[in-house]
Amino acid sequence: MTKTISKKELASWLDGLMKDRNLIAPALADQQTVFKPVASVDEIAFDFKNTALSPKEWFFPTTEPLFTIYQKDGVTELQPIDIEKESVVFGIRPCDAAGMKLLDKVFLAPPADAMYAERREKTTLIGLACSEAAPQCFCTSMGSSPGNAGDVDIMLAEVGEGYTVEAVTEKGNALISNLKLSDSNESAPEVKCPAELQVKDVSKAMQTRFEDDYWSRVADRCVHCNICAYVCPNCHCFDIRDYPTSEKTERIRCWDSCQSPGFTRAAGGHTPRPTKASRLRQRFYHKLLYFPERFGDYQCTGCGRCVALCPVNIDIREIITDIQKPGVKSGTKA
Amino acid sequence: MDENIINQIREKAKELLSSGTVECVIGYEAGTDGMTSRPAFIYEASDVERLVFDNTCTHNLATYLINKKTNKVAVVVKPCDARGINVLLSERQIEREKVYVIGIVCQGVVPVSWSGSGKDLQMRCKLCNQHAPVIYDFLIGEPAVEPVPTVSPWTSVAEMESKSSAEKTDYWNKQFSKCIRCYACRQVCMGCYCKECFVELLDPEWVGIKIDTSENSMWNMIRAFHLSGRCIGCGECARVCPVDIPLGLLNMKLAKEVAEHFEYRAGLSAEVRAPLATFNKEENLGIGE
User: Fold this and answer.
1) Which of A34, A129, A212, B45 gives A147 a disulfide partner, CB atoms 3.0 to 4.6 angstroms apart?
2) Are the C-beta atoms of A179 and A126 separated by less than 8 Å?
3) Cross-chain Cβ contact B114/A135 below 8 Å
């Protein structure tokens, strides 16, 4: 037996949630579907495979002030940033929700990142199962699935003229407590990803391929932009800088990427990863070896955004496959 | 796919690699989506079968020459990309004798995204009046009489120019607010080869690191200025932008200004330097005269 809600009731429920919360949902912005705050249910896009950018920016903003320093009459004051009211992120796909779980491992491990922790605490995730996979999707290979409810507070899946509703956490339960749901025997059809990868031996293979020429061959093609890191629901590196004016200094942090040449540059100018190949290799070693060693999971949830948006088709699925075959050259379809 | 073009590319690549003339051939191969092409670096004659050419070969491979300066390489270029080689030569960024240019008479490329490509040619290809490369060592295809363009290449710029200042500010602020500072536009640009880009300089700090409309605008506009009279219109910046900012329009506006003031188009010759990258003592700047 499942619980369902009609599309009309869903709309009025979301409408109600918006009254005292920010509602962040997939919406059309200049022909792209992205997560953004919406003021009305009409703005929400329901017909999308996945959003152009991941929802991570609502927890880890592209740029955010950390605190402001004031100096008045010889006294220095440090003013923390107020986190806004409670939020609901609606329409998050299972791959991106799995991405949130990975971000949690980084940002919530003691000492927790205060800003991230507070946003996470004040936000309820409402998941929306995929009714169709995109050509770049491979979440099932990375431990999730198009209908996985494991990483959200409430999970919805489209069936007929409505949605099945499953409260997964206490937070989710609280949000649907006043909701009138119908009983139903319907369940959403299973969706399959186009690609199924062998990932079991990736970390083991990576341990022996660090010095392999393979990386410089792939790096030949890579243009070393930051697209893959910035569209990734799991990449979480940032830079910090002070913005001083005569009255105050604002300390901000903002997204950064291991692909940029200045990323590891230390005081004095030394860069431990001076070549493009060493930077490209870092991306995949972090995702497929260092992160699993430290946190137990691959740092990739198979959303496929980097695959689809890479200007030169650096395809992590191909790399995962290649790296498990000894002696493979980039681009050979061995 | 034109088998004849592909065979000629493969044969030439094989010859250049077997004879040791070049260390590497930069061309195109099939991408993992099974529908579009991607750049390929071929080091061994036995790998030339990977090389392909079709109307999804939109990437400007001249960009890669900046990373391959040590040994001689061969590169497959379309006419637009060939103009990029001329820009790099005129700005002394590459040496002519270290590049073997395999030029292709091009019938145009289609809009390409992963797992999909358009049927119609890209707009820049529809307006193209140079279907044969201006520089090559080996030419594939027969140059034909160039069509007389029926539409001005500046149509989209003129449309933008006709808007009011407020409308333009509004439009571009909206566009730049989407920018995530991934720098993909810079990275795929053959004209953006500075070892240290102004945007990453700390001293002096020209632009901060914030991803917000104000600093994003600074970044995008200064980049456009640096490319004025140097952009060859390959369209790569706009193609790769993950948030669909029409960067080509910005570059085209500056190309139009340079064309009107200096009767100059980037990349037609390796001998002439871009007007804004040149200063002659006798030039009259119209300042204080």
Assistant:
1) A129
2) no
3) yes
Q: How far is B243 from chain A (nearest CA, A)?
A: 8
Would you give the DSSP letter of residue A243?
E
Residue ranges of chain B whose CB lies within 8 Å of a chain A CB: 29, 31-33, 36, 38-41, 47, 50, 59, 63-64, 67, 113-115, 174-175, 178, 180-184, 186-188, 200, 208-212, 236, 239-240, 242-244
| DSSP output for A183-240 | EE---PPP---S-----TTHHHHHHH-TT-THHHHHHHH----SHHHHH-SS---EEE
Which band of pLDDT confidence, cut at 50, 70 and 90, is reported for residue A334? very low
Run of H or E including B75: strand B73-77
**pLDDT tens-digit series, residues B52-67:** 999 999 999 999 999 9
Which H or E run includes A155? strand A154-159
Residue of B nearest to A223 (CA): B187
Closest residue of chain B to A229, computed from CA coordinates: B182
pLDDT in tens, B166-184: 999 999 999 999 999 999 9
Please name the helix (run of DSSP H) or strand (run of DSSP E) that holds residue B12, with its range, or none. helix B3-18
Is B63 in contact with A223 (Cβ distance < 8 A)?
Answer: yes
Phi, psi of B258 (to 5 degrees): -65, -40
Q: Distance (Å, rounded) from C-alpha A167 to C-alpha A267?
A: 50
Write out pLDDT tens, residues A58-92.
999 999 999 999 988 888 898 888 877 899 999 99
Mean pLDDT over the full length of chain A: 93
CA atoms within 13 A on the CB side of A322: 22
**C-alpha span between B191 and B187 (Å, rounded):** 9
pLDDT given for residue A136 in this prediction? 95
Q: What is the ipTM of this complex?
A: 0.93
How far from the centroid of its chain's Cα atoms is residue B28's Cα?
Answer: 16
Residues B178 and B185: their CA atoms lie apart, in Å, by: 14
DSSP for B181-236, written as a single string: ---HHHHT-TT---SS-GGG--SS-SS-S--SHHHHHHHHHHHHHHTTTT-----H
- Give contacts of A30 with chain B, Cβ < 8 Å: 174-175, 178, 244
What's the mean pLDDT in B238-259? 95
d(CA A287, CA A239): 19
A130-157: average pLDDT: 95
Query: At residue A333, does pLDDT exceed 50?
Result: no
C-alpha span between A126 and A112 (Å, rounded): 24
